[in-house]
Amino acid sequence: MIRGTTERLTCPFRHAGKDPAAEVAKVNLLTAREKEVLLHLGTGAGNRELAGKLGIAERTVKAHIQRIVMKLDQSTRLEAAVLSVLAHNLLCADPECRPCNTPGAQHQRAGVALS
Length: 115
What we know:
By secondary structure, the protein is an all-alpha fold. The chain has 8 helices and no strands.
């Protein structure tokens, strides 16, 4: 809903029945490799590019993404990619990563086991 209209303002997440914070917590359900694939998925890379970066076959990337989408209770790979961006601080183990070094990031990281 666009501000300034006369209709009641409501959150689009509420209409969709989604709670982004609760969705991020589901990252704990993934294996370490699935977390790695999810982190890369959040960059917007296609299957072929993901396969090259991860050193695995394209069909293996597809299988990982299918399991990730299922485990995270998402409908599409796009939803999983958005969730990857929201959960970046929980997925990324790079100590030099700027998004991971923002205030509160270390606290968020502590909530998700990376292995």
